[in-house]
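Changelog excerpt

This revision adds worked examples to the README so contributors can see how folded entries look when concatenated. The first example is reproduced verbatim below.
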Amino acid sequence: MGFPIRTAFTLLAAVAAVTITTPRLRADAGPKIKKLPFGKLADGTPIQLYVLTNKNGVQAAITNFGARLVSLKVPDKNGKLADVILGYSSVEGYEKDTAYFGAIAGRYANRIAKGRFTLDGVTYKLPINNGVNSLHGGTKGFDKLVWQARELTKSANPAVELTLTSPNGDQGYPGTLHVRVIYTLTDQNALRIQYWATTDKPTVINLTNHAYFNLDGQGNGDILDTVLMINADEYTPTDKTQIPTGEIVSVKGTPFDFLKPTPIGARINENNPQLKIAGGYDHNWVVNRDHKTGLVLAARAYSPKTGRVLTVYTTEPGIQFYSGNFLDGTLVGKGGKAYKYRYGFTLETQHYPDSPNHPNFPSTVLKPGQVYRQTTVFKFSAR
């Protein structure tokens, strides 16, 4: 990986250090986990939904299909709960989904150029599923697989663990990969996602959660008025196929400068070549780490309408901000709401896209005997 690995204890301590108390929430519902049926796949496989509830009544729902975050009900400035995650009401929608709503994307989140990379002198070929490139692990990535799930009843906070074994050669990737993901909902209204993985053969790995957020509530209009801050002085521009050129450039003087909180829509339609390529924002920002190796602030989003604030902390070197440029109303989600143009945004904590083909990027190589691990925290408050 691109930076030293902290122990799980250190990461948990870092999470505690960055949490902020949030008033105005009821404390009548103790922490709990509820397992519910979530429909069946086309082949008849039954799928489950795990609903985590903290003492404030905040809820996070996770399914074992794709280890997806299905819903996240958090309060606004008046204490009113609403679901701020785009998605579907049953697994049937997710089986057909092409937007990666709430999924754990892997083995390699984001794009790999022309579906090829070379490792230890061997060139590996991956499925092409995004123009001329491979995206989010291929045609059947981790988002389309059934994970093993179990409730962590001895955890201090409601939590669910999901595990998956990806065999050698899966979607063209080398090595048998064992993956473990834990979602934990804290009483500080933070959803913590922890990842681990091991391999029996050198491979590459890049995992992320692909949740689409709308802080006004899922399906409740576009996200252009949402005020965004990204803690990054630099980003990685792309070619016309949205593959990084290999450059790491300053955001200063460009529409990619979100160091000062700025509405998403303020500059999204500027005549900028990078914005034209992606149809808006769909780029990787280099998180300012200041030589720190644990959790750091990566981004913060605020809805002036509801007062909801989303703060993102991560151990990862990059964050992909995507402004929902390809949503067009054809996907109909929870409550029968159509997800129209720019009705959601993602903040995908990650390694840089196409890192296996760019030696100057932080390494995504995982070798036998090593443990891949990362932590990301989505912290909610209101003002």
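The second example, added in the same revision:
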Amino acid sequence: MAKIITISHQKGGVGKSTLALNLAYKFGQEVRTALTDTDPQGSTMQLKNIAEGIDILEFTNISELKKLPYDVIFVDTPPYLMADIYPIFLESDFVLVPTKAGVPDIIAIRATIELVKAAQSKSNLKSAIVLNMVKPRVSITQQAIEQLGQYNIPIIGEIKDRTVYSNTFLTGGVFSSTDTLAKEEIDNLSTSILNFF
């Protein structure tokens, strides 16, 4: 049965799709990996005939997806809390919540975290936060870490604001680039996620 890793945050622009794609490429180097998007109009679905090394699946039912012959399925979610996100959390093995270090993002994360915690009270769901699009040498990052501490969910990494991430959908992910720092960031994030299993 496939492990389901969901990438979710109700706010748009925090890099969910970029992270989902790069993590899928990374996992796809080792295990049978697929990627789906709960928003059929999402950018992920447009890669269906382009992505190599991972399968892009139409989102149907999360329970049915788990039965497919994959080791890991990444679930990208839209920039809002849709009605069926809670059932997706209940069926997921892990939820990664990416957030920028800005005040609006930290405020907006609350609703997503509340749904994660509600699902955790009824399942074995694991979860973590990753700081995404982190600007270099900005003191707000440490302030964001302190603010996020109130949620008692581990922060498992920082992904810097690098040009290579912006080109992910055109280039096949960071692993087809020469940016060793970006590759290392995704490697480290992947390892941190695996440590929950």
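Reviewer comment on example two: The longest strand covers residues 126-134. The radius of gyration is 15 Å.
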